[in-house]
Amino acid sequence: MAAVWFSLFLCFGFLFLVLEASIGDRDEIYRTCVKQCEEKGYVGTISITHCKFPPDDAHVNSSWYMQEPLYVEWKHLNCRSECRYHCMMQRETEKEAQGLGPVKYHGKWPFKRVFVFQEPVSAAFSALNLLMHFIGWLSFFILVHYKLPLRPQSKRTYYEYTGLWHIYGLLSMNAWFWSAIFHTLDFNLTEKLDYSSAVALLGYSLILSILRVFNVKDEASRVMYAAPVLAFVTTHILYLNFYDLDYGWNMKVCLVMGIGQLMIWSVWAGITCHPARLKLWAAVFGCALAMLLEIYDFPPYLGYIDAHALWHFSTIPLTYLWWSFIKADAIYRTSTQIRKMK
Asked: Taking the model in full, what pTM does it have?
């Protein structure tokens, strides 16, 4: 459930990045500053070393790696990133002196960096979410493989969805890993990896919700249910990465998949007699409250903490709650299977 909202909010964030792109980067003073920085290699008294490119004939006697196209492209990316950051901070200092409030640049609030971390608080909370998913997945692994009874002959778990939740755990950790990387270093590659990971997690969560709620156990039936969604999600990710990173279209896809599985889980929680249904309701309600942090956006407090960072923090306890429900479901289904065999 936490993964569903993580993916949805990420898609919302990219949509807002387009819709609100942006008062700051339309500022002519800012644009001129960035252009001059990329050409001359400095902003005021700050020298940008990444923007200092040697003359063409100097490459002949330079180290081999400095002649590689990938290294040159990396230098250009860092030059643009550094120029944007220092011009943004310089412009915000000027506006603060005039009594004006902060505005967004390229869809984002002006954050103060800490070393290489462009959004240090969001990156830290993303890392904590990654840790929570790892702890949740590891405790689930220990529960089903070492604490709960195994089938006598095959030594496999009684819980029919063990493998599916293992895949879910790996996809969740992958999504939060790239979220942490993206909030640390924001450029085209990390954006696409973060984006693709979130969409993959959202699509798989939809498949998992269908298989669990409708109690699909047969492997052939699972393939039949999963194949259309898997094919669509794969095609969609390829489309975004190699054809057109269309934020509006992706927002529609995310909404359909996200709302669909939330409705599935919510209706099932209302009609099932599952002993852990209250945990499921709490997860749904908690995620709904957390969504308010994305709707009511505000500038970063002291240049570090904004609404999106607080949302990252709110998903930490929701992740614990969600894995608690998954483990309770494993215990319930295992006990049910053992009773049927007696």
From this structure: 0.85
